[in-house]
Amino acid sequence: MTLANQEVYFSEKEQTFDSIILYMDLDAFFAAVEMRENPELSDVPLVVGGNPKTKQGVVSTCNYEARKYGIHSGMPINQALQLCPHLTMIRGSFKLYNEVSKSIMKILEYYSPTMKVAGNDEAYLDLTEVVSDYEEARTLAVELKDDIYATERLTCSIGIAPTKILAKIASETDKPDGLVIVKPLEIADFMNPLKITIIPGVGKKSAELFSKDKIFTCGDLAKFPYQLIHQKFGKYGLKTWKLVRGYNTEKTEDKFLNSERKSISEERTFFERYKTWEEMWIQIDSTIDTIIARMKVKHMSYKTITLKIRFKNFETYTRAHSLSSYNTSEKHVRTVVQKLLEEFENKKPEDIRLVGVKISNLRKIDNSQKTLTQFF
DNA sequence: TCTGGGGTCCTAGGACCC
DNA sequence: TCTGGGGTCCTAGGACCC
């Protein structure tokens, strides 16, 4: 299928691909940093995450050697150990990861003024105004990779395409240390053979749903009748359908706008169980402290407070309460959490495996409001 | 196998208002 | 007596991402 015979479904604007976007993703970031710091780890299967002593928790990142055993992010440590008994486990030096991440983002900034950091180990660069065509973009990407390696001794995978999402998908198809370019006229041929799960947002559940209609690849979905897709898979299905057809759904206005934070939360899984509510409260209290501290650093106020409780059988409940106005007080969080917790007071505290607190409905405090709070 | 922690976005129902 | 319609906000839960 070529772009030309998709036109029935596209408005003119949606077929315009006048941007050149680069996506960069550091390869096995946490594990790669550990290997750099400690060369004898280079050739052994390695995971960052979990508790090496109790063998609890999940894999945060693993190196490519560990992936050979079928280990992947999010896998329980216990399971990883069964697949590979001589696995090396590291808790992780997150302060160092943050420093390295910052240093790399600085390098990226140099290559384009329009940039969006999408996480610790990934970012998008808008190259539209920086290069004149995809060949120039390739040259720039090679330079960028060399630059990152020279500075931080880390490799990355890069995708270059007319939209952010296509650039990301492109980078996924050649890892580690890859560079994949998808030009506007190549979109359909590039997408069609790929598995549907390559689409960010299509996870296990959606893949299962799609498989009932014999949809396994992006091409399968692209062929699915337009009339049925919305009816069968809803708004989300339609969005995915448009995406696999190479439809340009990204709004140029907010593509590189850094959006405001929507929530601040902290949760703790208790590896040793608490016998009394008092012991539990010490934990919750300190959780609230850190949340409020983080909120203050960001000069924000909140309106909604959410409590999350997970029992040892993994049953999870969330209870929320919204205040009538924006607030910065720590006391309010405490009283509301206390109130929300009442519902669970007849349960045994030792049956609780996790407690979390979240503030949301956030708003930046402007200067006039700041003066007010100082006043009272 | 026994399942972290920090997030975002979506859905669906109910309350409430005009 | 059998009961509109749209908008917005709130709550609970779930899928998904890194």
Describe this structure in words.
There is one protein chain. With 376 residues, the protein is of the alpha+beta class. The chain folds into 4 domains: 18-27 and 100-187, Alpha-Beta Plaits, CATH 3.30.70.270; 30-94, MutS, DNA mismatch repair protein, domain I; 188-252, 5' to 3' exonuclease, C-terminal subdomain (DNA polymerase, domain 1, Orthogonal Bundle), CATH 1.10.150.20; 263-370, DNA polymerase, Y-family, little finger domain (Dna Ligase, domain 1), CATH 3.30.1490.100. Helix content is 39%, strand content 20%. The chain contains 13 helices and 13 strands. It has helices spanning 29-37, 64-67, 77-83, 94-111, 134-152, 164-172, 187-191, 204-211, 218-223, 226-244, 277-297, 330-341, 367-375; strands at residues 21-26, 46-48, 61-62, 88-90, 115-119, 122-126, 156-161, 179-181, 263-269, 300-311, 316-327, 352-360, 363-364. The strands form 3 sheets. A 5-stranded mixed beta sheet has the order 5-6-1-7-8. Strands 9, 10, 11, 12 and 13 form a 5-stranded antiparallel beta sheet that branches. A 3-stranded mixed beta sheet has the order 3-2-4. A hairpin with a 4-residue loop joins β10 (300-311) and β11 (316-327). The longest helix has 21 residues, at 277-297. It starts with 20 loop residues before the first strand and ends with a helix. It binds a DNA duplex (18 and 18 nucleotides) through α3, α8, α10, β9 and β11.
